[in-house]
């Protein structure tokens, strides 16, 4: 009988690396020594791998990556030997060489080997303390499989556009709280716009009433006649007489003869012939 089987207890022996479970109390635990050994060895360093035509073949969980022919920079487009749930941590072998991990690279990458970044962009690992943790998913890349990024170590989170100051990452294109405070306190931070306080004020802009009508008169508006002025009505809703020359002269109909110039009896005798 194989040593893997205990004839007395009619069960496989518990691995010396694991604690024996108590029946009905403990959750199931791994009891096969061979499986426990595989898990242990799988987390060990696999040493250095050199890129060949954009690809590597992983043998363990952790690998230092070197460029092909010791080039200053090289693209890493894929990694062979992926299987569902397998973890992989990679980092550059030297500060002097940059590893560009390509996102879904169809040029050099091969089906089942490509990398998928959280920000859908390539990542440059250019320092020895840069690293990336990935997990293999068989359902990626139209079910041909691929490596999905989990985290980055030592490198700017979220991809390009980041800078490091005092061990803190920030995007220089994003305003900090102090910048926003200074901006709000500025007298006029948007010179191309007019402030709300300038509505209805000198050199400002006109406001609208509830009916969306302008409630401010233009600069040339006037209740009394002025050169090039725009007439405005008085409080009674009437224009001043000076705005109309006939009103000012007292005769609105200069093309007619005023009846007041004739005697009533004369007008009565006048007849028109057809």
Which terms would index this structure?
6-stranded mixed beta sheet, 274 residues, Jelly Rolls, alpha/beta
What is the fold named in CATH at topology level of the domain at 45-155?
Jelly Rolls
Along the chain, the helix and strand elements come as HEEEEEEEEEEHEEEHEEHH
Low-confidence stretches: 14-18, 26-42, 156-169
Work out the strand percent.
15-25%
Rg calc: 45 Å
Q: Main sheet: which strands, in order across?
A: 1-3-6-10-11-8
How many H/I helical runs?
5
Task: Report helical residue fraction.
Answer: 10-25%
- Helix/strand-derived category reads alpha/beta
Amino-to-carboxy terminus distance: 146 Å
Judging by the overall fold, what is the CATH architecture of the domain at 45-155? Sandwich
Structure write-up:
There is one protein chain. With 274 residues, the chain is α/β, with parallel strands linked by helices. Among the domains are: 45-155, Jelly Rolls (Sandwich); 221-253, no CATH class. The chain is 12% helix and 22% strand. The strands form 5 sheets. A 6-stranded mixed sheet has the order 1-3-6-10-11-8. It has a 3-stranded mixed sheet with strand order 4-7-9, with no helix packed on it. It has a two-stranded parallel ribbon with strand order 2-5.
Fold topology:
Layout (H helix, E strand, L loop, with lengths): L32 H10 L2 E6 L4 E3 L4 E5 L6 E4 L1 E3 L6 E6 L5 E4 L13 E2 L6 E3 L5 E7 L2 H4 L2 E8 L9 E3 L2 E3 L6 H9 L35 E2 L7 E2 L13 H5 L14 H6 L5
Parallel strand pairs: 1-3, 2-5, 3-6, 4-7, 8-11, 14-15
Antiparallel strand pairs: 6-10, 7-9, 10-11, 12-13
